[in-house]
Design brief:
The protein contains 15 helices and twelve strands. It is an alpha+beta fold. Helix 9 crosses helix 12 (307-330) and helix 10 packs antiparallel against helix 14 (344-364). The radius of gyration is 21 Å and the shape is globular.
C-alpha cells in the first residue's frame, strides 16, 4: 500500500488504537514535510490541540527522488526501527521516540520534533555549534563501541549481523557513493564548467584504485551497527541538543563510514563558506571535536583498545569522507550548502576546490596520520 495525502486519513483512522495519540473524534491536519531522497514524511496534528502531533514516515516502493522507475524494497524501514531500538538502548535521548511501526505498510510513527531544525540549515546560515559536533561524536562512539565485533561474544555478533543484514540499502550506497559518480551514469549531473575536472577524476587510475579498495571495505567489513547515512541532513538540533534521524540505511558494517559521511558534509559546508573565516574556523573545530569525542567514548568502553584499531578507523573514515564529498558534487544527490549558491561563478570555484580536496582525501587516506593533518590541508 502506498500512502499519500489522499489515503492517509483512512490509514490513520484504522490505526488510532496502535498509535495512541489522538482521540477518536479528533480532526487531524496532515502536511508533508522533509526533503529526503527515499521516503515521504508527514506531520499529523490534532487541529484543536496542535501540540498533540506525530511524524509519520512512509517508504514508497521506489526511490522517491528518482521515481517509480527505480524500485526499492519497503523493508528499509524495518532496519530503521531496529536501529532506533539499538540507539535507545545504548544512547537514550539521541533519537526521536518511536511510537509505532507497521512493517506491512512501511510506516514509522515517531516523536514530532517540530521546533527542531535540520543541522544543515544551521550550517548554511553560518551557525556552527561545536557542542553539536561533540554530541554526534559521542553518539557514534557509544553505539559503535557497544556493538563493535571485538567487544562482543560470538552469539551477539551473529545476532547483530542477522538483524542488520541490510543488503539492499548497502548495495544502493555502494552504487551511488562508490561507483556511479565515476562512470557515465544517467543520474550524475554537475555544474557546467566542472566537466574537465570530472573527466580528469574519472581517468585518475590512482583515485579509481583507492575508490575500489574503499568500496570493498564498505561491502565486507562487519565491525558494528552503522547508521549508514549520517550526514548533516540526518541530524535535528534544538536548544543545544542533537537528535539523529533517518536510519533506514543502518547495517552491520565499517564504523568509519559514519564518521566519513559526517565529516564530508562539514567539509562541503566549509568550502561553501569561502571567504568567511570565522565560520570556516568553527567548522574545522567541529570536525576535530567529533573525532576526539568519538575516540574518548570508544576507549571508555574498550580500555584495551589498540591504537592501530583507531588508526584504521580513522584512515577509512578519511577515505569515505572524500568519496562522499565527490558524490555530492557530481552524483545523483547534491547538497543545499553548495546548490544554494546563486552566483554561478562562485559556485563553480567552490565545487572545483571541494572536488580537488575530496579526491586528495581518497588518494592519501592511508597516509594522513590524524585529524590535524587533514585540517592542515584546508585553505
Amino acid at each position: 500500500m502506498e500512502l499519500d495525502l489522499a489515503t492517509l486519513p483512512d490509514y490513520l483512522r484504522q490505526r488510532r488504537a496502535e498509535i495512541r495519540m489522538f482521540e477518536s473524534e479528533a480532526e487531524l491536519r496532515i502536511e508533508e514535510i522533509g526533503d529526503g531522497n527515499l521516503n515521504t514524511v508527514y506531520r499529523v496534528s490534532d487541529t484543536a490541540r496542535p501540540e498533540r502531533s506525530i511524524v509519520l514516515k512512509h517508504a514508497p516502493p521506489y526511490i522517491k527522488i528518482l521515481g517509480p522507475e527505480y524500485p526499492l524494497s519497503i523493508e528499509r524501514l524495518t532496519y530503521e526501527s531496529r536501529a532506533l531500538d539499538i540507539y535507545n538502548q545504548f544512547a537514550s535521548g539521541t533519537v526521536p521516540e518511536l511510537y509505532y511501526f507497521d512493517a506491512e505498510t512501511a510506516v514509522i510513527v515517531m516523536e514530532d520534533l517540530r521546533d527542531a531544525q535540520v543541522l544543515r540549515a544551521d550550517l548554511i546560515a553560518g551557525r556552527v555549534n561545536t557542542d553539536i559536533a561533540e554530541q554526534i561524536g559521542r553518539f557514534m562512539g557509544i553505539v559503535h563501541s557497544r556493538t563493535y565485533v571485538e567487544n562482543l561474544d560470538s552469539t551477539t555478533v551473529q545476532h547483530y549481523r542477522q538483524q542488520f543484514a541490510n543488503t539492499t540499502m548497502q548495495s544502493i550506497t555502494a552504487d551511488y557513493v562508490f561507483t556511479f559518480p565515476y562512470t557515465e551514469h544517467e543520474t550524475n549531473f554537475w555544474t557546467p564548467g566542472l566537466g574537465p575536472d570530472v573527466q580528469r577524476l574519472k581517468s585518475d587510475t590512482d583515485f579509481l584504485r583507492q575508490a575500489e579498495r574503499l568500496k570493498q571495505i564498505f561491502l565486507t567489513a562487519q565491525q558494528a551497527v552503522t547508521h549508514g547515512d549520517l550526514h548533516t541532513g540526518s541530524v535535528l538540533v534544538q536548544n543545544n541538543t542533537a537528535k539523529v534521524i533517518d536510519a533506514e540505511f543502518a547495517f552491520y558494517g565499517p564504523v568509519g563510514f559514519d564518521l566519513g559521511l559526517y565529516w564530508a558534509n562539514y567539509l562541503l559546508s566549509y568550502f561553501s563558506h569561502q571567504g568567511t573565516l570565522d565560520v570556516q574556523s568553527a567548522l574545522k573545530t567541529a570536525i576535530a571535536k567529533t573525532w576526539h569525542t568519538y575516540t574518548f567514548e570508544f576507549k571508555t568502553v574498550d580500555r584495551t583498545l589498540k591504537e592501530q584499531t583507531l588508526q584504521q578507523i580513522f584512515h577509512e573514515a578519511v577515505g569515505f569522507a572524500g568519496l562522499e564529498m565527490l558524490r555530492r558534487l557530481i552524483g545523483a544527490a547534491h547538497v543545499k550548502d553548495i546548490e544554494g549558491i546563486a552566483d554561478v561563478s562562485k559556485k563553480l570555484r567552490v565545487e572545483k576546490a571541494a572536488l580537488q580536496f575530496g579526491s586528495t582525501l581518497v588518494k592519501q587516506h592511508q597516509s594522513l596520520r590524524d585529524v590535524s593533518a587533514v585540517l592542515t590541508m584546508l585553505f
